[in-house]
Amino acid sequence: MAEQLTQLAEDRALLGRTSTAERVSDILRTRIAEGYFLPGTRLSEDGIGGALGVSRNTLREAFRLLTHERLLVHELNRGVFVRVLTVEDVEDIYRTRRLVECAVVRELGAPPYALDGVAAAVAGGHAAAGESDWKGLATANIHFHRELVALAGSDRTDELMRGVFAELRLAFHIVNDPRRLHEPYLVRNEQILAALRAGDAPAAGELLAAYLDDSLRGMTEIYRRRVREGEV
User: Fold this and answer.
1) What is the phi/psi pair of residue 74, to 5°?
2) 98, 209 Cβ separation under 8 angstroms
3) To bridge 204 with a disulfide, which of 40, 119, 124, 195 should be the other Cys (CB 3.0-4.6 Å)?
4) 163-184 pLDDT, tens per residue?
5) This prediction's pTM
6) What DSSP letter does each residue of 66-118 carry, written as one string?
C-alpha cells in the first residue's frame, strides 16, 4: 500500500484549488482501472486522504460515488474495499456490452464512419503487443470498445459504458495470464475495423457479437477456475 500511496500523491496536483469529491473519484477510478488498487484491497481513509491532501468528508463522498458505480464496497466495521466481481457479475457485464455495443455498430447508418479513434486504438494494441505490454494491450482493447460506442455520438451511452468498462477492468485484474486473454482479440479488432471501413456495419456487428460471446466464455472459465482454487 505504501508504494500505491506514493504514486497517488503524484495525482494531488490534479485536484488544484477546486478540489471536489468528483475529482477525487476520477483519480481513484483511474488508479483502480490501472491496477494500483487491486480487487479486495482495503482503502485507507487516512492514507489516501493524506496522499491527496483532501478532507475525510471529501474522501468519503468520493468513496460513496465509486460504491454507487460498483467499483467499491463498504463492509460494516471493516472499511471500504475494491470490489471483487463474481461470475454472475461478469456475465451481466457482458450481457450489457452485447446489448449496447452491438446495437451501436449495427445501427450506424450509411457510411463513411468516423473511425480515427477506432483505428488509433487498434494501433495502440499493436504497439503494446510489440513491447509485450499485456496490461497495455488490455487497456488498448478497452479503448477500442469505447471508441466503437462513441460512434453513436451519445453522451448518455458513453457515460453508461464508462461505468461498465470500469467494472470490466476489475475482472481483468483477476486474470493471471493477460496475454492469453487479450492477444487473440487484436486480430479480431482489425477485422471489425476493416468491416467498418468497407461500410458494412451489419457484418461488423456480427463479428462483434461473436467476439463478445467468445470473450465471455474465456472470462467465465477463468473466474470459475479461480473460484474453485479459492483465489476469488
Assistant:
1) -105, 125
2) yes
3) 195
4) 999 999 999 888 888 888 899 9
5) 0.84
6) HHHTTSEEEETTTEEEE----HHHHHHHHHHHHHHHHHHHHT--SSP---HHH
